[in-house]
Specification:
The complex is a heterodimer of chains A (836) and B (391). Chain A has 836 residues and is of the alpha+beta class. Chain A is built from 28 helices and 20 strands. The mean pLDDT of chain A is 79. Chain B is mainly β. In chain B, 7% of the residues lie in helices and 50% in strands. In chain B, the strands form two sheets. In chain B, strands 1, 2, 3, 4, 5, 6, 7, 8, 9, 10, 11, 12 and 13 form a 13-stranded antiparallel β-sheet that branches. The chains are: A alpha+beta (836), B mainly beta (391).
C-alpha cells in the first residue's frame, strides 16, 4: 500500500477510535467464542484420547472380555502356557474422594516393569513396587493428584467405593509427565489390592498387550468366546464417536458467534467508506488507482481484524478455561467419566482462529472495498445517489437470500448431522440477506402510520432508519440473527425439557428407587448388596420390585449399553413404543430385546431387525421386538429382560431397584426402612419417584448450561454490532441533527428522536427474528436433534421466550443508543454544521 | 489519539496476546530422570527384618532343598555353561531364577478375603546367550509374582518357573535338570546331567559373608553337568552340547556394609577338575575380605576348601562398557600355589554385561595355564558385581 494512503488510513481510524474499538471488539468476541469452543472441545478430545492412550505406553492392543471382566486365569494361561510376553493385566474402577471422581488402575507392578508405565522403572523393586505390593490399600499417584485430593505422601485417606467408605494410603509418587492429563485424578494400585477394594476378586477389566502383527493373528485364535482384541487407537476412536454429536453442536454454535462478528466488521467498514466518499473521490482525482484504494480499505479491515484476532485468541483461551469445565461436566453427566483439567492448546486450533478472524475480515471488507475502488475520480457523489444504488443492490441481496434459503433446504435432503448443520447455517445466512427487504417492508407502512397518527416529527424517526438502509440493515440483520438464535435455541431447549419431563412422568413408574452412590466402572454399574435386595422385597407394604443392571457389551455396532430389566408390576407402562401396536412387550418378556430410539436411529435397527450381541459364550443373535422412547443417553440402550440376560451372562448383580408400594402403603416410613436395611456399610441413594424426577431434570438443566452461556455470548456480540451501527449512523447524521437543533429542536427532543429510531430498529430486528428464529427452532428440534441425538422432541413454544426476544431486541437497541444519543445532544449545532 | 500512541497500543495488545498464548502453550515439566539400575550389592545388603537367618550348618536334603525356602529373604537357581554347536561354534548361556521376598511372610494369612494376587514373593529371571562366534550377547529379564501360578518353586517333582521359563527335574535322573526358556528369537531347551554329586560350599554348606552371626547363606553347587539340547539364536534352532555349572544359594542377608562387591570364578578344567572362588572386595581396602572362599574339586569328586589367602588373583586388563561406562576387570592371572595351579583367564567375549534391573557382568571365559608343570586348559564363567551403580 502506498505510504501516504496508509497514513491517511491510520489517521482516519485514529480520528474514530470508538468505531475502531467496536470493530476490534466485534471480531475479537467472535474469534474468542470460536477459539474457546474449539480449544475446550479439543481439550476434551485430548483428555479422552489420553485416558486411553496416555496410559497405553508401548501397548498396542487391549484384550476385552465380557462386561463383568476377564477371568484372571486367562492371563495366567496366556503368560505361562502360550509364552506371551509384554502383557499387563489391568483392573479399572472409579471411586469418590469428596466431590471428585477418581480413576483407579489396579496393575501388576512387575508386569509394568517390562512396559515401563506409571514410573515402574526397572530398579525400583526396593521402592514403590514393593510398597504397593505389600501394604494394604497402598496407592501411587502424581504430585498434582495428591494436591488435588488433599493427600500427603504416607497419609491414610478416606474414599468412597460403590457407596462404601474405605481407607487408602498414599505410598508412592510417580512422575506423571509421560501420561499427561491421563495422570490427573488417577490412583495406581497393585492389582490384588484393587480387586479387594472393588470386590472384583478373580477379575480383570482388560489385558494390555504389545503385539507384533503375527502374534495378533495367533492370539486371536486362542481367545475364548466373548473376548476381543482391540487396537488402542480404535478404543479412543470409539470414545470420540460417542461424543461426536455433542462436540459438533458446540462448533456450530461458535460459528454463529463469528458470523455475527463478521457482520460487525462489514458494518464498520462500509460505514467508513460512505463517510470518506468525498476523500476517496479526491484521492482518485489525485491519481490513486482503483487497486490502491481497494488495498487501502482491505488493509484497514485486515489491520482491525489482526488486532481483534490477537485479542480474541487471548480472550478465547481465557474463556476456554471456564468452558472446558462445562464441557467436561456435560460429558461426565451424559457419556463417561472423564477428567479434563488442562487446556490443550493445539497450534492448529489457534491457527484456525487466526484464519477465521482474518478470513472473515477479508470477506466482510470485500463489498466496501470494491465500493471504494469504484468511486469515480470526481467530487463526492451525493449521498442520495449511494442510497439509490444500494436500493438496486437490495434486489440482488434479496435474490441471494432466497437462493441461500433454497440451497439450505436442499441440504436437508441427504441424511446426516453435518448436512443438517450446514443447512442451518445457510438458511440463517439467507435470512440475513433478506433482512434489508424485510426491514423496508416493515418500515414503509410504519412510517406512513406514524405520519398519519403523530405527524412529521414521529415519521422522521422511521424515515431516518429506512433512508439509511445500506447502513441500518447489517445492524438489523446482526441483531435479528442473534435474537433468532436465542429464540431457536430457546424453543429447542424448552421442547427438549418438556419432552424429557413428560418422559420422566411415565418412565418412572415405581414409587421409589434405590441405587448406589457414585461411579463404579467403565463397563458396569455399581452392585447393590444382594442381601439388601432380598430384605427390601420382604418389607411390609412392598407390592413388587423392578430391578436394573447396566453393562456394556460388544455388538455388531461396537460397544453397546445393555440395560437389564427385571420387570416390576407397572414396568410395561414405563416403556412407550414408537409403534405402540403389536405384541412387542410380550415378545420382550419371551427373549426378544427392545432398543431405545437413539440406539435404533444410530444403528438403523427397528422392530423386526436382528441384533448380534457378544455374550459370555460368544456372539448370539437377538430379535428386536420394538423401539421405545428414551432420553437418558444419546448412545441409546438395548433393553433385555433379566431372565434372558442371566441365560447368556453369568452375572446376577443388581445395580438399581424400583419399589412398587401396595395400595395404601406409606412411602416415608418405607424409605426409612430401606435406609436402615442398607446399614452403615454401603451408602445407597434412596429416592422417591418425585425426587428422582427432579434430580433428573436438574442434570438436564446442567447439561444445557453450556447452550445458555453461548446464547448469551451471541447476544453480546450482536449488542456490540448494534451499538456500532447506531453510532455510525447517528454520527453520520450529525449535520442533519445540527440542522434540527438550529431550527429549534431541543437536546431532549433529539434524545427522543435517536431513541425512537434505535428502538424502532430493535423492534424491526425482533420482528424479523421471529420467522427466522422459528425456522431455526424447527431445524434444531425436528432435524438436528433427531439426527444428532436420535431423539424425537415434542414441540413446546414458550410464549415468554418469544416476547423476551422482542424485548431483548428493543432493549439491546435502546441500550446501545445511549452513548451516541448523549454525544449528539451535547455537540453544539454550530460546530456540527461547520464540520461539513 | 496520536498515531505514535496508537501504534504502541496495537503492539502492546499483540504482545500481551502473544505472551498469553506462549505462557499457556508452555511445554510440560521435563520427565523425571530415570533411576539408575540397582546394584546387586544393595539388593543383597538390605536388612533382613523378620526373615530366617543362616546360623548353623545343615545337611542338604534332595530334592527338598531344590525347592523354595520362603522363610529366607532371597534365593536363586543359577545355571551357566559353555556349549558348542554341531560344527563347534562356541556359545555361552546363563539362566537364573531369583526369588525375593518383599517382606517377611506374616505369621498367619488372612484367608478368604484376599485377592489371589496378594503375595510377598517375587521372582526375577535372567536369560543371557553369548554367541561367541559372531561376538553378540543377548541378555533378557522377566519378573513375576508368586501368585496364580505365574511363578513359583516346587521341590518334588522339581519345578521352578517364571511364566513359561522353567527349571525342572529330569524324570528318573537323581541329579539332572531340564531348562526351558524362550523369548522372541532366543531360547534354550537343555538337559543337564550331573557328572559329580553336588558339593556343599563354605563350612558344610554355610557360606559366611561377614563377621556377624547370620550374615551367611546356604550354598551348594553342581560343578559339572553334562549338557545337551537346543539353543535358539535369531529364531534358528541349533543343537548344542557342553558343560554347565549350577549354583544354589539362599539366605536373608549377604553382604556387610564394608564390602564393595565380588568377583566369582567357576572354572571347569579339561583334566576333570573344577575350581570355584569368590573374592569379596572391600571398600577402600586392597586386601580381600577374610570371608572370601573357594573350593577345588578333584576329578574324582573330592572337594578341597580354599582359604582366602590360598588364592592369588592379579587383574591383567580392563574393559569399559560403552553402554554404562562401568569399567570391569577383563583378564586375570589366578594362581593357587598349594595346588601348583596357575591360570590365565580371558573373557570369550568382552561385552557380557547385563544392564538389567540388577547390573553386573556375567560371562563365559576361556582358561589356559599350568597344573603341576603340565599344560591345562578349560572354560568357565566369571561374575563381576559392584563395579559401579550409575555411569
Amino acid at each position: 500500500m502506498n505510504r501516504a494512503l496508509a497514513r491517511l488510513s491510520r489517521r482516519y481510524l485514529a480520528a474514530h477510535p470508538l468505531q475502531l474499538a467496536l470493530a476490534v471488539i466485534g471480531i475479537g468476541l467472535g474469534v474468542a467464542v470460536a477459539v474457546a469452543i474449539a480449544v475446550a472441545s479439543e481439550s476434551a478430545r485430548t483428555a479422552m484420547r489420553l485416558s486411553v492412550e496416555g496410559i497405553a505406553g508401548p501397548v498396542t492392543h487391549r484384550l476385552w472380555g465380557p462386561p463383568q471382566g476377564i477371568d484372571e486365569s486367562l492371563y495366567v494361561e496366556l503368560r505361562t502356557r502360550h509364552g506371551l510376553s509384554l502383557a499387563a493385566p489391568v483392573l479399572e474402577g472409579f471411586l469418590r474422594r469428596g466431590e471428585r471422581t477418581v480413576r483407579v488402575l489396579g496393575v501388576d507392578p512387575l508386569a509394568e516393569l517390562e512396559i515401563g508405565r506409571f514410573g515402574f522403572a526397572v530398579g525400583e523393586l526396593d521402592g514403590g513396587t514393593s510398597e504397593l505390593m505389600t501394604t494394604p490399600g497402598a496407592v501411587a499417584l502424581t504430585d498434582a493428584t495428591a494436591r488435588a485430593l488433599e493427600v500427603e505422601l504416607g497419609q491414610r485417606f478416606a474414599v468412597e467405593v460403590a457407596g462404601r467408605s474405605r481407607l487408602l494410603t498414599a505410598r508412592a509418587l510417580f512422575g506423571g509427565s509421560a501420561l499427561g492429563a491421563a495422570a490427573e485424578d488417577l490412583l495406581v494400585m497393585d492389582i490384588g489390592a484393587a480387586q479387594e477394594l472393588f470386590d472384583q476378586r478373580g477379575r480383570l477389566s482388560w489385558i494390555d498387550l504389545t503385539l507384533e502383527p503375527a502374534e495378533l493373528e495367533s492370539l486371536g485364535r486362542l481367545l475364548p468366546a466373548g473376548h476381543k482384541l482391540e487396537a488402542v487407537g480404535a478404543r479412543s476412536e470409539t470414545l470420540e464417536s460417542i461424543t461426536r454429536g455433542f462436540t459438533l453442536n458446540l462448533r456450530a454454535l461458535s460459528l454463529l458467534a463469528l458470523a455475527v462478528g463478521a457482520l460487525l466488521i462489514y458494518n464498520t467498514l462500509s460505514f467508513s467508506v460512505v463517510q470518506r466518499r468525498g476523500q476517496l473521490g479526491a484521492l482518485r482525482a489525485l491519481g490513486a488507482t482503483r487497486g490502491q484504494v481497494f488495498a487501502m480499505v482491505m488493509g484497514e479491515s485486515l489491520g482491525v481484524a489482526a488486532i481483534g484476532t490477537a485479542l480474541g485468541i487471548g480472550a478465547g483461551i481465557l474463556l476456554a478455561q471456564g468452558l472446558v469445565h462445562l464441557v467436561a461436566r456435560t460429558i461426565n453427566d451424559l457419556y463417561f467419566v472423564l477428567s479434563v483439567t488442562r487446556l490443550d492448546l493445539d497450534p492448529a486450533v489457534l491457527a484456525q482462529g487466526v484464519a477465521l478472524g482474518l478470513g472473515v475480515a477479508v470477506i466482510a471488507a470485500m463489498v466496501p472495498a470494491l465500493e471504494a475502488a469504484n468511486t469515480r475520480p470526481q467530487l463526492a457523489l451525493a449521498r442520495s445517489v449511494i442510497e439509490q444504488r444500494s436500493r438496486r443492490l437490495l434486489a440482488w441481496s434479496s435474490m441471494l437470500g432466497l437462493g441461500l434459503l433454497a440451497g439450505g433446504a436442499l441440504l436437508l435432503l441427504p441424511e446426516g448431522f453435518v448436512w443438517a448443520l450446514a443447512a442451518v447455517l445457510l438458511m440463517m445466512l439467507g435470512c440475513a440477506f433478506l433482512t434489508p427487504l424485510a426491514a423496508a417492508g416493515i418500515l414503509v407502512p410504519v412510517e406512513r402510520l406514524l405520519r398519519r397518527r403523530f405527524g412529521l416529527g414521529a415519521s422522521l424517526a422511521a424515515r431516518g432508519v429506512s433512508a439509511a438502509l445500506s447502513r441500518t440493515s447489517p445492524a438489523i440483520a446482526a441483531l435479528s440473527i442473534a435474537i433468532a438464535a436465542a429464540v431457536g435455541m430457546g424453543v429447542m431447549v424448552e421442547s427438549f425439557r418438556a419432552t424429557v419431563a413428560d418422559w420422566l412422568d411415565y418412565h418412572l413408574q415405581a414409587d421409589a428407587y434405590v441405587s448406589v452412590a457414585g461411579r463404579y466402572g467403565t463397563r458396569q454399574s455399581a452392585p447393590l448388596d444382594p442381601g439388601l435386595v432380598a430384605r427390601v422385597a420382604a418389607m411390609p407394604g412392598v407390592q413388587g420390585l423392578a430391578t436394573w443392571r447396566g453393562v456394556e457389551v460388544d455388538s455388531q455396532f461396537g460397544p453397546s449399553r445393555l440395560s437389564v430389566l427385571g420387570p416390576g408390576p407397572r414396568s410395561r407402562a414405563g416403556y412407550r413404543l414408537l409403534d405402540p401396536g403389536g405384541e412387542a412387550w410380550e415378545r420382550f418378556l419371551n427373549g426378544a430385546v427392545l432398543v431405545s430410539e437413539s440406539y435404533g436411529r444410530r444403528h438403523g435397527v427397528g422392530a423386526g431387525s436382528d441384533l448380534v450381541l457378544v455374550t459370555a459364550s460368544g456372539p448370539r443373535t437377538f430379535a428386536v421386538a420394538g423401539v421405545y422412547f428414551d432420553y437418558g443417553s444419546d448412545r441409546g440402550y438395548v433393553l433385555m429382560e433379566r431372565g434372558q440376560y442371566l441365560r447368556h451372562w453369568p452375572d446376577s448383580v443388581i445395580s438399581a431397584l424400583g419399589i412398587y408400594l401396595e395400595a395404601g402403603a406409606e412411602l416415608g416410613p418405607l424409605l426409612d426402612r430401606v435406609h436402615a436395611g442398607a446399614g452403615e456399610d454401603q451408602r445407597i441413594v434412596v429416592r422417591s419417584n418425585r425426587d428422582l424426577r427432579e434430580a433428573s431434570l436438574r442434570i438436564f438443566d446442567r447439561t444445557f448450561t453450556i447452550t445458555r452461556v453461548l446464547q448469551l455470548l451471541a447476544v453480546a456480540v450482536a449488542f456490540v454490532a448494534v451499538a456500532s451501527a447506531l453510532l455510525a449512523i447517528q454520527l453520520e447524521r450529525a449535520r442533519e441533527f445540527a440542522i434540527l437543533r438550529a431550527t429549534g429542536q431541543t437536546p431532549a427532543g433529539l434524545w427522543a428522536l435517536v431513541l425512537a429510531q434505535t428502538g424502532l430498529m430493535g423492534l424491526v430486528a425482533g420482528l424479523l427474528a421471529l420467522p427466522s428464529g422459528g425456522l431455526l427452532a424447527v431445524l434444531l428440534t425436528d432435524v438436528v436433534s433427531v439426527r444428532s441425538f436420535g431423539w424425537t422432541l415434542h414441540w413446546q413454544v414458550p410464549a415468554g421466550s418469544v416476547l423476551g426476544a422482542l424485548g431483548l431486541a428493543v432493549g439491546a437497541a435502546l441500550l446501545a443508543a445511549v452513548l451516541p444519543a448523549r454525544r449528539l445532544a451535547r455537540v453544539p449545532p454550530a460546530l456540527a454544521l461547520r464540520a461539513e | 489519539m496520536k498515531p505514535r500512541r496508537r501504534h504502541w497500543l496495537v503492539v502492546s495488545a499483540l504482545l500481551a496476546g502473544g505472551a498469553l498464548v506462549v505462557w499457556l502453550a508452555r511445554p510440560p515439566e521435563p520427565p523425571t530422570a530415570a533411576r539408575p539400575a540397582l546394584e546387586p550389592v544393595s539388593v543383597l545388603s538390605a536388612a533382613g527384618g523378620d526373615f530366617a537367618r543362616v546360623e548353623r550348618p545343615r545337611a542338604f536334603v534332595f530334592p527338598d532343598d531344590h525347592g523354595a525356602h520362603r522363610d529366607f529373604r532371597h534365593e536363586w537357581w543359577y545355571f551357566t555353561g559353555n556349549l558348542h554347536g554341531p560344527e563347534g561354534q562356541p556359545l555361552g548361556y546363563q539362566l537364573t531364577l531369583f526369588r525375593f521376598a518383599l517382606a517377611a511372610e506374616p505369621a498367619a494369612q488372612v484367608a478368604g478375603q484376599r485377592s489371589a494376587w496378594a503375595t510377598r514373593q517375587v521372582y526375577m529371571g535372567h536369560l543371557a546367550l553369548a554367541d561367541i562366534g559372531s561376538g553378540r550377547f543377548f541378555p533378557l529379564q522377566r519378573f513375576a509374582r508368586e501368585a496364580l501360578g505365574l511363578a513359583g518353586a516346587e521341590a518334588d517333582p522339581l519345578r521352578v518357573w517364571l511364566y513359561d521359563w522353567e527349571i525342572a527335574g529330569l524324570p528318573g535322573v537323581e541329579h539332572g535338570f531340564r531348562l526351558r526358556a524362550r523369548e522372541g528369537g532366543l531360547g534354550v531347551d537343555l538337559e543337564l546331567r550331573a557328572e559329580k554329586p553336588p558339593i556343599a560350599q563354605g563350612d558344610a554348606g554355610v557360606s559366611r559373608k561377614g563377621p556377624e552371626p547370620g550374615n551367611a547363606s546356604h550354598y551348594y553347587s553342581y560343578t559339572r553337568l553334562a549338557t545337551r539340547g537346543t539353543v535358539w539364536l535369531d529364531g534358528q534352532a541349533r543343537a548344542v552340547s557342553g558343560a554347565s555349572w549350577m549354583d544354589r544359594e539362599w539366605g536373608s542377608s549377604a553382604l556387610g556394609p564394608d564390602l564393595a562387591g565380588w568377583d566369582w570364578f567357576a572354572l571347569q578344567l579339561e583334566d576333570g577338575s573344577e575350581l570355584m572362588f569368590y573374592d569379596l572386595r572391600r571398600r577402600g581396602e586392597p586386601r580381600r575380605s577374610p570371608f572370601s572362599s573357594g573350593v577345588w574339586v578333584a576329578p574324582a569328586g573330592r572337594a578341597v576348601t580354599l582359604a582366602p589367602e590360598a588364592v592369588e588373583i592379579e587383574v591383567r586388563a580392563h574393559w569399559t562398557s560403552p553402554r554404562t561406562g562401568v569399567r570391569y576387570p577383563s583378564r586375570w592371572r589366578l594362581a593357587v600355589p598349594e595346588l601348583a595351579l596357575e591360570l590365565d583367564i580371558r573373557p570369550r567375549l568382552a561385552d557380557q554385561e547385563l544392564d538389567l534391573a540388577v547390573r553386573y557382568w556375567e560371562g563365559a571365559v576361556a582358561v589356559e595355564g599350568e597344573r603341576a608343570a603340565g599344560p591345562v586348559s578349560g572354560v568357565g564363567y566369571v561374575e563381576l558385581a559392584g563395579y559401579g551403580a550409575s555411569p
